Amino acid sequence: MIKRLWQRAFDREHFVTEMPLNRQGEGLPVYEFHFQCIHGPRGDVIGAAHWRS
Question: Which domain of life is it from (predicted)?
Answer without folding.
Answer: Bacteria
